[in-house]
Amino acid sequence: MSTKLQRRKNLRVLVPCLATITIMLGVVAYSPTLYRLFCAATGFGGTTQRALAGSEERSDRTVTVLFDTNVAPDLPWRFEPEQREVTVHLGEQKLVFFMAQNLSDKAIVGHATFNVSPGTTGIYFNKIQCFCFDDELLDAHEKVDMPVVFFVDPAMATDPETAAVDAITLSYTFFRSPAPDKPKDLSRFLATSSPDPARGQALFVERCAACHAPDVNKAGPMLGNVVGRKAGSAPGYNYSLALRSADLTWSADSLDQWLADPRKFIPGVKMPIRVLDASTRRDIIAYLKAGFDKPSGRSEYRPVAQGSLDQHRNE
């Protein structure tokens, strides 16, 4: 057998082997990420879902949600729920609070892991807002109340595996972050914190930008110079009769009431989305006020910061 032919045969064996090894190394390297994506998509192991907005459907059926909190031994924090349990309607958006306190003399960054039980309910448990999505910084001896906004999908009642479930336990464990990357400051939830328009822009992009823009009507009306503008008056937007008829000029206070519960504030409007957390409303409104300049009596949009995307609904 010639040397050239032997080399060809060797390559036929070697190339598939190298390809298999490369694929296996890739699977090993990315397996944690792939596993997290799988859990997030399927709710496997009680992994909860991350929602962009609340459900428009609300069922008469209720479920009790219980809260369980834990802290890793090397993290000198106190961490507990402000309420041990709540009863909610399926589809109902709910705001609850968890208290965290740093018992040490130095700032520490922590990260919370979470799941729900029974594990089969994970795919139906949706979080709109949670401190568990990021590394969180808590200053020495600082104490904060951290909001969580969630809802349980009404589809849980039609799944044979979850139809009989009447109680769900949401569990958190806080660990010390070994390598924090730009942690968020939990002081943003303090009532004494100043309005933060930069955070407000990021929240606006997360919670509102799918339907609202500063200078163009989308599914919702343009919001450039909304503070000081008469309700229902953005040019070219087809408002509901209730909003067109409202004798209201938007101010920080009226926007706060609107975001908290639009349909309660102005009965008959179409927008179902609520922003339950007061600190979130505060910073979104600060952005709406600070993100626009009037140097010559003319509206001019001025971005405050960079952000990422979520979903809002029209009025």
SS-derived structural category? alpha+beta
Low-confidence stretches: 25-45, 293-315
- Overall pLDDT level: 82
Number of E strands:
13
CATH class of the largest domain: Mainly Beta
Shape: globular
Strand order of the largest sheet: 4-2-10-6-8-11
Q: By CATH's scheme, which homologous superfamily of the largest domain applies?
A: Ctag/Cox11
Give the CA-CA distance, first to last residue. 80 Å
> How many H/I helical runs?
6
Strand content: 15-25%
CATH architecture of the largest domain: Sandwich
Q: What is the rounded Rg?
A: 25 Å
Please bin the fraction of helical residues: 25-40%
Give, in order, the helices and strands. HEEEEEEEEEEEHHHHHEE
For the record, the count of structural domains works out to 3
- Assign the CATH topology of the largest domain: Ctag/Cox11 (Pfam 04442)
Largest sheet: 6 strands, mixed
Name the descriptors.
315 residues; alpha+beta; Ctag/Cox11 (Pfam 04442); Cytochrome Bc1 Complex, Chain D, domain 2; 3 domains; 6-stranded mixed beta sheet; 5-stranded mixed beta sheet; 24% strand; disordered C terminus
